[in-house]
Design brief:
Helix content is 0%, strand content 44%. With 97 residues, it is an all-beta fold. The strands form two sheets. A four-stranded antiparallel beta sheet has the order 4-3-6-7, with no helix packed on it. Strands 1-2-5 form a three-stranded antiparallel beta sheet, with no helix packed on it.
Length: 97
């Protein structure tokens, strides 16, 4: 799974885009029905703890989510992980600035 990011021209928000994973960490297949959603976590570069958002209803090859009300979007770290139907998370993937 890859995670991309783009900031709005007016600042204050970041749109994250990622592709749905097709296999689990152990290599077994992962289908649409296996994924219950995605956990997005983000923090400003000066913070230790993350803010967390759970995103449901993304059943496509390209998922997007807009994080708003950020004081300086370029100063934030973003990560996303898939969550399967039994609640297991994949490894978190970081977005490049």
């Amino acid at each position: 799974m890859e995670l991309g990011r783009s900031s709005s021209s007016g600042g204050g928000s970041v749109t994250l885009t990622w592709s749905q994973p097709t296999e689990r960490v152990n290599g077994s297949p992962l289908t649409d029905d296996d994924i219950s959603g995605y956990t997005i976590r983000y923090r400003s570069s000066s913070n230790v703890s993350f803010n967390t958002i759970f995103v449901e209803n993304c059943r496509s090859n390209s998922c997007t989510y807009k994080v708003e009300d950020l004081s300086n979007p370029s100063e934030y770290d973003f990560q996303v992980a898939a969550v399967d139907s039994v609640g297991l998370h994949s490894e978190f993937v970081s977005a490049e600035n």
